Model the fold of this input.
Amino acid sequence: MSKPKIAIVVGSTRAARFADTPVEWIAKIAKSHADIEVEIVDLRDFPLPFFDEVASSAWVPSQNEVAQRWQKKVAEFDGYIFTAAEYNHGPTAVLKNALDYAAKEWNKKPAGFVGYGGVGGARAVEQLRMHAVELQMAPTKAAVHIVWADFLAVRQGEKKLSDFDHLNQSANGLIEEIAWWAKALKIAREADVLNEEAKAA
Done:
């Protein structure tokens, strides 16, 4: 079996976003795990309009060209780690919108989160876990929560994320869970395809 391919999704598109910092940090740690392949996926590269299709792509093919390109990109991966900024006790609108613009491409794949902001982005992550379940994903228990004090120390240039042992431990725990579930679910999805082919023969 080929190595599972994991996307690290940059969950904010603001010009002044903090997201690039945790993305670069978690990607470096993830790439040190030899049993997975890692790619950074930036939502800035997929300027999706606010959802404006006649229905979910689970039922009707999307007409928007960027949506089609986004769905093809999502389909390439066996698992996802999302950065989750917390705005007003919830995730960014652009990330929720990106989740809504795909459907079957998310199914039966693990999802993990790197939260930051108030209480380490925990409230945003909890909401995203519910969205992930509805999209038939397998959200991991392990997550990274960059609390406000750590966030400010990094934002002000006093420290790097890699200076915090508790964050490094959380990151490795998250990646290990994502890798385990990605492998297991990849095998299961491939078995489903073989079963469908056998039925059709």
Summary: The beta strands are 5-10, 37-42, 79-85, 110-116, 138-139, 144-146. The first strand starts at residue 5 and ends at 10. The mean pLDDT is 96.
